[in-house]
UniProtKB/TrEMBL annotation, chains A, B:
Membrane topology: Multi-pass membrane protein
A Pfam family per the record: Sulfate_transp
Organism in which the protein naturally occurs: Carya illinoinensis
Chief location bin: membrane
Gene Ontology cellular component terms for the protein in this record: membrane
Keywords for this protein: Membrane, Transmembrane, Transmembrane helix, Transport
Subcellular location, record wording: Membrane
Name under which the protein is recorded: STAS domain-containing protein
Length: 642, 642
């Protein structure tokens, strides 16, 4: 019996080279330095500048056509950004004007350094709420507004530093640890929590709990039913109805996307007018109050690096930074996919980081690329990041000249704007899809939701991530093993459960292992394989087939093996030998083969027992079985020897 | 073109059934209830009793032959157990008599419930040291010996409860998370630390640091050079030389195993005699002092459940419990393998737990199955767990009548016994083997060692486990992708790097992914696959081959996929379509196929693009390529359409 092919042992590689290779795969999978190869130094400098400042790349090729599109989209986004900015700043317990400041400097910074053409930079709801709840645990925003403000700048600074350094260290992949299911559940939970917080404004309450969980909020709301103000409630519901119906309309007629884009500004204008005309501020409708005219004041001196709250500030910065970035990169990537261009996560991370560092020095708090603005920007036909500059200029005009107009803006209208934006984030269809496709992902999603709504934003996030990682570990710790059978009229061997017409080969048990063999699963595999053999022998005994002689282990899906795994294989081999059977390996990969060779397992086993394909392994076993049948003494002797 | 086989979509299974099935695989991989199936209730009861009390199984078949062997081995082990027990109790800062107590009750409990025939139960060095260092942080053993003693009993109780409940909950697999490499490094580190602690006795010092790290110990030793006692040192070195040389001799002549087994007792007897005769206790040689005669007093009332140290006690119990059990089960399994019988980890865990609970109520501290005793037991030819009972009876006699003989036993001889036992645990050959076979495992091993020696036992353990788990996660987060080529004269496709003679198929790129597609690697794979295609197109451009038309993704090693992975596949498909190429899948497994089907990916892609083998996929692509070549207009049109 002869095989055409032998399993190759890859040639030994010098340790340093293989280390370098695997470090490169881990940290530079996208090979960002590829374009720098074989270039003269001057060209390298230019490419480097292009890398960090994509504006240098697209600005020279900018056309008048682009400008027209970017002007329209920038102004449309600004009309959304202004009311949203004020609302989210209220959510973060910060002065409303900060929302406008944050829509001025960061978009300019992003336009220089960002590589997405569709992102429109601004503040977002979930990090705003997180900032309020995490810093609120340390400092009361109402009692000590100045310190609270300074801590918010400092947290933003740390968020920026964290984002930029992750990007520089090529660690952007940590956002990949937030799975799709985690994000769906987390976002829905956060949206629910944010909406619950708006009950304060909608019902016109003065006192409200600082906690964010459902139970505390409902207790706070229902403990003061006598304080509810119907005027506020009516105005809130009307605005909400207006906002939702315009969104619905725009969804139906995509050409009228601008209707839903300007709806928030319209409701602010109408609400302010109404309050001004009927003096509703004296009848329980709270208003924004005075907004200072003028551009962002410098806040570099306000950063508190030596306060007793430093630890809490850093923690807030890191968590809000990660969540902000995760939203930004997800949005950026989705739109990049629509338009077929590439976004480098690490480079974006640096851009976001620099933008937040710049923001923290100019009275801005955490910004990222929110979905709502990017969607409006995209629908309005933006072409480049210039739309961010246009938006920033529009906000600048507002800051310089129009702030007094917001004096009478009712808070409840801002609350309605937040609620209507949040409702889009509760993606129940995605949750249903998760349930249909992958129950485990559904569990992750629901735990994130429940954790956020009944615990806190951090608890939800930690639970969901822990469950997601547990699943990955479980895949390795409890790999599937399956029996393969022969598909009729072929030399193909496949899982007998998936292909019921696959028939087993008499005298041979073919087992496939579906994961790398590591210490976490070595003991499990040892027991599971022993059980497969037991079960097969029981089955054979009751059916009276040829008794079992060979166990073929199919290693196609075993990507790697560690020393615990090799010991396990040695033990399995001994156990199989002791039963009078013979172990045969089929198709071990390069990495596995290298290690089996180094540990002398290949030598002990005999390379003739390692086959390239399952078909050849089975053919080899069959050949041996026939030889034995025609000469049964050999079998008996072989059995005694082992 | 026709394919003989189609990729089957496994029939949908009811959710409850598949959940039950995967829970069973996770917690009952060894199917312990198998023997209970189809049995009458009375038989089930008997089997259940046999399960929890294996003594009922072997006692009825016990023979006189067995008794002879067990008597010899039990007495030999006792001669090792008595000096070892006293030494380790000193190591744990507990009264020496506790070491004897702990060799009396627990072995009796284990003989009833344990399923190993070779384990000889007793105290061990590493958990003893851990107990001293962890409880020592809370209570000073010299200043408050009574409280310290009670806390030690309580910690033992919690260790027992923890072990038993893990066993009952079928969670014994958590010890699998201690990889072989971690254990090698950890044990060597712990042995180094234990030996360092013995410098106190060897040099005859009164004062000594409570810390266990190398730096603190050396500082403590060299800060009091004037206190060193040469008498103690000489006696210690002589004993150590005697012990090591007997071990060496026994290793050379396996028939004289008993020489190394009784060497500790011999050195204790000789040392005590010497001290008694020359009154060395008055010349700087510290002695054990008085040992109380009599059996274990009941200590149930001494358990401190309401002390302020409860948290520390529970933590100590859990950590010492896990480490003790890990050693015991590893030793038990190794000897079971030699003798070809099976040990159920969860059942053993229950036995260890009950043994420690019983011990904590009878003045014993943490016990397990130490390697040294099991090795002596095995070499002495033990047949059943009765050797434990024999040993316990021998210890009982010692407790009742012989304790006064240990009054003059020099502590330095006990220190020598500990050192000589510890030296075996520094397995440098295993570390060299790790370096040769698997560099990553070597890093794990060395970090465990350095962590233990320079930090503390817990730090070393945590670092090593974190690195080991990181490796598992990294395997999933950065799966290998490789290009397959055709082996000459076959339809076999294998990794082109492993098989340099594999040739690529013109116009077709065959990519294999080596891990399940989960959220942690979805982004990576998207970028990596895009890069493979870029590189292939660059290569083709420079070589002028047929331009790329098909990308075949080989899914053989993709064991599972989650919803993030499915989105990634959809994105890849879109990206490939947009380049004017076509995506083809080869050999997706049952689980993957099920999810791709549920998420409508199969439908979108067209089932005709999913092939059962790489060979068929390539044949399909080639067929299409030929059709296109003979009719190039179609290609152009297809390209424009996509």
């Amino acid at each position: 019996m002869e095989c055409t092919h032998r399993v190759a042992i890859p040639p030994p590689q010098p340790f340093v080279k293989s280390l370098k290779c695997s470090l490169k795969e881990t940290f530079f999978p996208d090979d960002p330095l590829r374009q720098f190869k074989n270039q003269p130094p001057s060209r390298k400098l230019v490419l480097g500048l292009h890398y960090f400042f994509p504006i240098l790349q697209w600005a020279p090729r900018y056309t008048f056509e682009f400008l027209k599109s970017d002007l329209v989209s920038g102004i449309t986004v600004a009309s959304l950004a202004i009311p949203q900015g004020i609302s989210y700043a209220k959510l973060a317990n910060l002065p409303p004007i900060l929302g406008l400041y944050s829509s001025f400097v960061p978009p300019l910074a992003y336009a220089m350094m960002g590589s997405s053409r569709d992102l429109a930079v601004g503040t977002v709801a979930v990090p705003s709420l997180l900032l309020a709840s995490m810093l609120g645990n340390e400092v009361n925003a109402n009692e000590n507004p100045k310190l609270y403000l300074h801590l918010a700048f400092t947290a933003t600074f740390f968020a920026g530093v964290f984002q930029a350094s992750l990007g520089l260290l090529r660690l952007g992949f940590i956002v990949d640890f937030l799975s799709h299911a985690t994000i769906v559940g987390f976002m829905a939970g956060a949206a629910t929590v944010v909406c619950l917080q708006q009950l304060k404004e909608i019902l016109g309450l003065d006192q409200f709990t600082h906690a964010t969980d459902l139970v505390s909020v409902l207790r706070s709301v229902f403990s003061q039913t006598h304080e509810w103000r119907w005027e506020s409630g009516v105005l809130g519901c009307c605005s909400l109805f207006f906002l939702i119906s315009t969104r619905y309309f725009s969804k139906r007629k995509p050409n009228f996307f601008w209707i839903s884009a300007i709806a928030p500004l319209t409701s602010v204008v109408l609400g302010s007018l109404l309050v001004y005309l009927i003096h509703a501020e004296k009848h329980g409708v709270q208003v924004v109050g005075e907004l200072k005219k003028g551009l962002n004041p410098v806040s570099l001196g306000d950063l508190e690096f030596f306060s007793p709250y430093l630890k809490a500030t850093i923690k807030t910065g890191i968590i809000t930074g990660v969540i902000g970035f995760a939203e930004g990169i997800a949005v950026g990537r989705s739109f990049a996919m629509f338009k077929n261009y590439h976004i480098d996560g690490n480079k974006e991370m640096i851009a976001f980081g620099m933008m937040n560092i710049a923001g923290s020095c100019t009275s801005c708090y955490l910004t990222t690329g929110p979905f709502s603005r990017a969607a409006v920007n995209y629908s309005a036909g933006c072409k480049t990041a210039l739309s961010n500059i246009v938006m920033a200029i529009a906000v600048m005009f507002t800051l310089l000249f129009l702030t007094p107009l917001f004096h009478y803006t009712p808070l409840v209208v801002l609350a309605a704007i937040i609620i209507s934006a949040m409702l889009c984030l509760i993606d129940y269809e995605a949750a249903i899809h998760l349930w249909q496709v992958d129950k485990f992902d559904f569990v992750v999603c629901i735990s994130a939701y429940i954790g956020v709504v009944f615990g806190s934003v951090e608890i939800g996030l930690v639970i969901a991530m822990a469950i997601s990682l547990l699943r990955v570990l479980l895949f390795i710790a409890r790999p599937r093993t399956m029996v393969l059978g022969n598909l009729p009229n072929s030399t193909i061997f496949r899982n007998a459960e998936q292909y019921p017409n696959a028939s087993n080969v008499p005298g041979v048990l073919i087992l496939q292992i579906d994961a790398p063999i590591y210490f976490v699963n070595a003991s499990y595999l040892r027991e599971r394989i022993a059980r497969w053999i037991d079960e097969e022998e029981d089955r054979i005994k009751s059916s009276g087939e040829t008794c079992l002689q060979y166990v073929i282990m199919v290693m196609s899906a075993v990507g790697n093996i560690d020393t615990s795994g090799i010991s396990m294989l040695e033990e399995i081999k001994k156990a199989i030998d002791r039963r009078g059977l013979k172990l045969v390996l089929a198709n071990p990969g390069g990495e596995v083969m290298k290690k089996l060779h180094k540990s002398k397992f290949v030598e002990n086993m005999g390379q003739e027992c390692i086959y390239l394909t399952v078909g050849e392994a089975v053919a080899g076993c069959k050949y041996m079985l026939q030889t034995c049948k025609s000469n049964p003494v050999i079998v008996a002797e072989t059995r005694n020897l082992t």
